[in-house]
Here is the input.
Amino acid sequence: MRAVVKNTGFDNLKYLNEQSAAILERIERFSDKLYLEFGGKMIGDYHAMRVLPGFDPNVKMRLLHKLRDKAEIVMCIHAGDIERRKMRADFGITYDADIFRMIDEYRGWELDVAAVVITRFAEQPAAKIFKNKLERRGIRTYTHRFTKGYPTDVDTIVSDEGYGANEYIVTKKPLVIVSGPGPGSGKLATCLSQLYHDHKQGLASGYAKFETFPIWNIPLKHPVNVAYEAATADLMDFNMIDPFHLETYKQTTVNYNRDVEVFPVLKRILKKITGGESYYESPTDMGVNRVGFGIVNDEIVRKAAVQEVIARYFQCACDYRMGYVEKEAVEKTGLLMEDLEVKPEHRPVVEPARQAAKEAQKKGKGNQGIYCGAALELSDGTIVTGKNTPLMHAASSAVLNAVKAIAGLPEDIHILSPNVIQSIGELKQDVFGSKAVSLDLEEILIALSMSATTNPTAQKAMESLTALRDQPMHITHIPTPGDEKALRKLRIHFTSDPEFATQNLYDG
Here is the structure.
């Protein structure tokens, strides 16, 4: 019997075996080829890691690597997302840049990328430039326009005027993973278009869907499923009981509202493509997700998921303050917290951060009338705080204090000389012409790395930075770009109150 690590709620090996078997079984159901619509994050699924402690954020790539002899990847991106320069919030990069990033990642895992498809293409200039970039790097690129007749006129959709008007994507392996950088990438339409072309050629290919969340075989209001609803609050989607599965099999399962809403039309499309064969009776039937079977400690994952809901509330509140989402998204995450009977203050690092800010104000510290506090929880449960000063940001202070604690260094020791910090500040002000002299976390880490070459204490502190990975942090003000970038690179799971850290409108 394999031992489960303490404080682990998820067994990766069990999941890997279950999931591999489910996909292989689905491939065998279709004699020629399976198009597997792959939702969510294939690489670096830190949401899953946070709500399912023990979950390897790259376990899905390990799965595909295991199936690499049978699988290849088709990537989809909506032309409108290229034109609008839509961003991935987790990486801070545009969707089109993420395509390049993912291709590099897939190649690193020895996976073949068959092609990139630009969906709903309408001659957008940015999309045409993106296509040129891909093709000039030797990547096969296709364009699909909006499907005529979609979503109601099935006869037109499933015709040479509809799916038939799309370029056929040439693939060679029995499993085709269809992925994209985010929702609305056109993955489903690409799969169905391929099915149409295959069946016209006499190939009995099939379709299935792989989504990590919501988890179909745990309760609707389980905190893990609630956390996913909170993560997508800006889309105003919601989890629901699959009514088609309940009616057909008398079994309660959980699905996403968009999948349920589109299923009747999807079923009609599949029946028309295949000539009347109906191989799915519900959205749950379409899925191959087995992540629920990897949960080995329900209590641990419940607690973790509750913390994720609180974190998503803070993220929504900040996004609203910055103009990225509507107020309804904040209200929704607030209601989800109420359903779980928790408040923002139930995140352990929130109150210590706010107290640090109050202490800064009481002592007359802070910077230019802004009093910011930060709190970071270490792996042993210790909470370390930091405050902003004219020399550095609160996030910078908290991280330096944290690595001193991890390295066993005295609290009052300076691992960075105040002269060094001041010198960098003068460079920013006198040479770069910056109004913001106080050093952000990215600048502090560069200073730390340089000091480590001659200072053993700084070297010891720098070596402790990896111990901060996946630890929770809260800041009383929205982090500046330099803070945010460094926190993401350190892989610290940070939240913040929806307050700006400067009175300036421009933060460049």
The chain is about 45% helix and 10% strand.
